[in-house]
Amino acid sequence: MTKYTGSKCICCGERFVEGDDIVVCPDCGTPYHRKCYLEKGSCINTMLHDKNVGWLPDAPAEPLPPVTPAVKRCIRCGAENAPGLRYCEQCGTPLINMETPRPFNDDRREQRNDERGYYGPDPKVGEPLPGTEFAPVMLNQDSDIDGVKLGDLARYVGTNPIGFLPSFIRFAKTGRKLSMNLFAFLFTPVYFMYRKMKGWGIATVVVMALLSVPDMIIMLASGEYDIKIDLGINTKSHDFQLLTQIMLYLTMVVKLLAGFFANYIYYRQARREIARIRAQGEDKPADELNREIILAGGTSWGYVVLGFLIYTMVSFGMVVLLGKMI
């Protein structure tokens, strides 16, 4: 009986179950309910008789096992990742071809941040967070990034959060610190000051100003900008030319270090500032804390102007000091 359970009786179309009274055609082996066979009087499965073959049970209708991809390819950098990973090992981007829910991606574009995690329009404040109104990927603001919410990081960054958040996620998930920032490489002091990294900004302003002193001496001695100051230094001497080359190489080293580590420095500062604001404002409303985070981060052209003034004072001050010493 067991081999017929689940198969269909070709007379009535009902499947056989345990306990059914079944008879079998002696020629082809087709099973019938006894009453069906008696009603027909003989086997009606003539096709098997014509082909002189025997009856076979129906194949079990079992679902096919899910196919697991060998690798997951990141849509951002193209790196191949192991099937079990949820974030790209190279850039930290969520792997969107995963079957389980993804904490850093959400296809529900119309949901608001106080209800379902969309950090776009803030219904309490009435306007979108800076830089998030055009974000192509909806991110879950409640996702934990090394003890800080992703939404707070987006608020702190302000403009261009999509440019920073993948790097922040990668820093938290992999522990890596390198991430190339072209603007930090090209405009090192300006970039740090613009992103309100005041300590690093002032440090790089002073260092870059000191490294530019030989070029400043050459410029003043040549009268290139209608200002000619002769400090009594032979700018064409071998020693001065060597000093100029050394300063140029050191400048490039500083710029490369800034380009590779600026994002990580910014990530560390953002986490530190957000944690401080949250710790000091436990009793404050959520929208007020959000505003404090936005004001603490973002960008500032005022700091850029301050950096330019410091750069000018340090570079010209060193030239004047050298002039007095010589």
Describe the structure.
The protein is mainly α and 326 residues long. Among the domains are: 2-51, Herpes Virus-1; 177-325, no CATH class. 46% of the residues lie in helices and 6% in strands. It is built from 11 helices and 8 strands. The strands form 4 sheets. It has a two-stranded antiparallel ribbon. Helix 3 (150-157) crosses helix 4, helix 6 (188-194) packs antiparallel against helix 7 (198-211) and helix 9 packs antiparallel against helix 10 (286-296). The chain is elongated, with a radius of gyration of 36 Å. The termini are far apart.
> What number is the mean pLDDT?
80
Largest sheet: 2 strands, antiparallel
**Total helical elements:** 11
The tally of strands reads 8
Low-confidence stretches: 60-64, 97-138
Strand order of the main beta sheet, please?
Answer: 1-2
Shape descriptor: elongated
> SSE string, helix = H, strand = E?
EEHHEEEEEEHHHHHHHHH
What portion of the residues fall into strands of 2 or more residues? 5-15%
Roughly how many Å apart are the termini?
A: 112 Å
Helical fraction equals 40-55%
Q: What structural category characterises the helix and strand content?
A: mainly alpha
Rounded to the nearest angstrom, the radius of gyration is: 36 Å
